[in-house]
Amino acid sequence: MQPLLGEKKKLRGVFGWWPLWQEVIPLEEDGRPDRALIVANLGAGVMIGIRQGLSAIMTASLIFTAAGVPELSDKFAFGITMMWFSSAVSALWYGLFGRMQSGLIGINDVIGILWGTIGGQISQQVDSAQIFPTQLAIIAVSTVLTGMASIIFGQLGLGKLMLLFPAPVTSGFLGSIGFFIFKSSLQISSGVKFHYLWPISFEDFLQPQPLARVGCMFAALAFMRKVPPLLVKAFPYPSVKKLGGLVCQLIPLFAFYLVTSLAGIDMEELTDQGWTYPKQGSSSPSVLWTSRSLSDADWNFVRTTLPSQGLIVMMSVLCTMTGVLGISGKFPRGPLGDPSPDETIDYDRELLTVGWVDLILGLAGGIITFHRLGSTVQLRMDGGTHRIAVFTCSIFCAGLFLSGIPIGHLIPTWFLGGLFMNSSVSLVTDALFSFRQLPKSKWSFLGWKLPSMEYGITIACIVVAIAWSPFAGIFTGLALSVFEFLWHSSQSHPVSGISAGHLSVGRTKRPVWELRVLRREGDRIVLLFLQGQLFFGSADHLSHTLATATDEARLKYCILSFARVIDIDASAARQVKTSVEKAARSGVHVYFCRMTPDVFQELSVAGAIKSPDPALRKVLSDRGINFESWQKAEDTPATFFEASQAESSSGIATFPSRRRMTCEFLPLGTGKFDAFDTESDALDYCNDLLLEEYCYKDVESYKKAYRLACKAGDRLAEGDFEDMHFLPRGTLDRLKPHCEVMNHLPHYQNLPHDCEPTLYFIMRGAISQFEETQNEDVIVARSGKLQTEVKGFTGRGRKRLRARFPPGHAGSLSFRSAPSFGFALQVVGKTSFFLTNDGVVDRKVLPMLQVSSRVSGYAEVWGLKRSAWDQLPADLRGLLQDFMLFQLADDRQHALLIE
């Protein structure tokens, strides 16, 4: 069980997190130390300390001996001292301030390979006396820079951005490092320099002594890799599983000394024959600071290596992030004693913790350290659950550092080569077989599906790194990743879906004669739903798609929805503008809708959008877009008189202009707009243009009256209302005394809240049916946390338009407080007037009624309450029941066509 959880909370500190006592020492439920777990943690810490000590030898060899430079190889023992110091300090630091209490940071072979490569360059351009101090200067500078970069990235909150480094490049880089380690393993064990993967002198390599050492190296490699699984299979005990790998790693070394002891071979003789390094070093740890003199370094050369050091910094920060990601993925829950075992790891805080210790180590003579996935996994597997295990590892490494043991003289070169080769095989095989985790490409060769382009990037990184350098491999991988991204983006289709006006209509409720015309002529409208990230790589494809879509003789209007467009750059925006102008020359008008503020700005700056709809302007203004720079004429809504004059001058038949309303309004289909808030607004606009041309040239008087009511804001006469719905003349005159007549209702006025359901008859203006998100709703809170909009409520003040009902329609409204009838709050659909309380699903999400600004300057509605309904004459009630049944069926018919 996890003792004392919840009694204390983790506290943030300058360097990371302040440790809690329950994280340091395993505790019983009563708060006393758990002795058994303490012993397990101490043992795990010693085992990891041994691994860290051997890893320090490998890294020191990579930095100081892999390049084959005598001035650096002579400092191998010094390098081991430097590694042990760094291991001890980094383990202590993370034990104090790390978030993952059983995690570990330490030195890494990857960075050692990079420094070893630079060491080879130093020997070719710097005097021999300056080689060693120059190498130390480069190590110190890059370590300090890594610490500073990690701290800055952590403070700026850029931790997660580092995880965007392309995976194929990382795989290829690690694979190339594996090949370099492979070459270093052969070079260390044989004592012969290698060029790429073959020896410079085959004659020297084929001598008995080098071949014997290489043979011992491969034998040790086979033992390390093959025997542990066999042991676990033969002896399936937890102790064997935990310690088998470490024991098999040490047995070849013990066997070597056993053979040499029985044969009576002296260590000096082994050194003379190249089996071990010369006995060197100091018994005092002060050699780490007394043997270095950075003032003797060639600082001009150090400055020339700053680009390479920048790559070291980048790889170090990346390794920190990937290490944290791997550890948290391997152990998604914290160990015993963790006060918040399910808390998400703070990547920025991890960067700060590692950055501070790297800065200290860089100034104190150490090297770069970061998270070690393998060591942390092994520590947890060995039983390390608390910080005492990490402190034990630190103490063990500190003991090695303080003792000054000349361990380089005690470790055979072939054993170091075997340890290197073990890491090399893992890195190379992971890279070469990474295609197994990748999808197949569409190309094939002799019937075999080829791997994806990402695998090609990995191979290219490896080849370039082997031929030139690891840094060139990284640059090649990044360049190829950018090319692959552009290639895939240019090949992806910018259109996710298509529809037409005869299959989709807007949310404005229309009478049957208008719907018939739209079903017949609506195919003159096409809707294209764009998707993805539109940029210069996909601009040509986008232009071709728009040209194809608008190249139809019958087509008149094209609506582009940007709802699924993440972003658009200037090149794609200019291509859209060119396509819009080309379509206009062909007689096709292009309209835009559903844009984010960034997309809108790109399109408007490019000149594709010139006159956004007022509703869109309001939505974008609420989101931070300033329209003060737009022309004043565009900012002022046109009256119906101005709009009708403009339309008549274009040759389109219009109705005579009427007097101005009490409020200025802009009816649907008027004005010169090219961008709208939603697809529905754009469809309504285009539908009105089609209806103006194809529906109202020669119509009955009641249809003409209805059109005037929508376009000019006129009041619909009772007789015209009755003719629209096949009601006997005089029906509304009989009904009016039973209704509450509400006139001169301004725009955006909510219909009165009453305590009983009400049936409304719309005589002037329009009523919008909408839903509104509730501030207390869970989904609203979640949308805030996730920094996203609630689906369906993006736009006008977290509202969702269900339908817009113009003059001549009727609807009902009931309220939550209705005591006797309990009808649902469902507006302008007639449903609520007859829906009992037992049929209500959830009152909170039921729609509301509001006066629309799209039709007339104000609204006039008649409200028939349920109590008045019960007092109506039977024949009048029967007529209204038939009327509402017809409208319910008509509403359903219209709903089937809504986009």
Automatic annotation (TrEMBL):
<feature type="transmembrane region" description="Helical">
    <location>
        <begin position="414"/>
        <end position="435"/>
    </location>
</feature>
<protein>
    <recommendedName>
        <fullName>STAS domain-containing protein</fullName>
    </recommendedName>
</protein>
<dbReference type="GO" id="GO:0016020">
    <property type="term" value="C:membrane"/>
</dbReference>
<dbReference type="Pfam" id="PF00916">
    <property type="entry name" value="Sulfate_transp"/>
</dbReference>
<feature type="domain" description="STAS">
    <location>
        <begin position="515"/>
        <end position="607"/>
    </location>
</feature>
<feature type="transmembrane region" description="Helical">
    <location>
        <begin position="243"/>
        <end position="265"/>
    </location>
</feature>
<dbReference type="InterPro" id="IPR002645">
    <property type="entry name" value="STAS_dom"/>
</dbReference>
<dbReference type="InterPro" id="IPR052706">
    <property type="entry name" value="Membrane-Transporter-like"/>
</dbReference>
<feature type="transmembrane region" description="Helical">
    <location>
        <begin position="311"/>
        <end position="331"/>
    </location>
</feature>
<dbReference type="Pfam" id="PF01740">
    <property type="entry name" value="STAS"/>
</dbReference>
<feature type="transmembrane region" description="Helical">
    <location>
        <begin position="388"/>
        <end position="408"/>
    </location>
</feature>
<feature type="transmembrane region" description="Helical">
    <location>
        <begin position="351"/>
        <end position="368"/>
    </location>
</feature>
<keyword id="KW-1133">Transmembrane helix</keyword>
<feature type="transmembrane region" description="Helical">
    <location>
        <begin position="134"/>
        <end position="154"/>
    </location>
</feature>
<feature type="transmembrane region" description="Helical">
    <location>
        <begin position="42"/>
        <end position="64"/>
    </location>
</feature>
<dbReference type="InterPro" id="IPR011547">
    <property type="entry name" value="SLC26A/SulP_dom"/>
</dbReference>
<keyword id="KW-0472">Membrane</keyword>
<feature type="transmembrane region" description="Helical">
    <location>
        <begin position="104"/>
        <end position="122"/>
    </location>
</feature>
<feature type="transmembrane region" description="Helical">
    <location>
        <begin position="161"/>
        <end position="182"/>
    </location>
</feature>
<feature type="transmembrane region" description="Helical">
    <location>
        <begin position="455"/>
        <end position="483"/>
    </location>
</feature>
<keyword id="KW-0812">Transmembrane</keyword>
<feature type="transmembrane region" description="Helical">
    <location>
        <begin position="76"/>
        <end position="97"/>
    </location>
</feature>
<dbReference type="InterPro" id="IPR036513">
    <property type="entry name" value="STAS_dom_sf"/>
</dbReference>
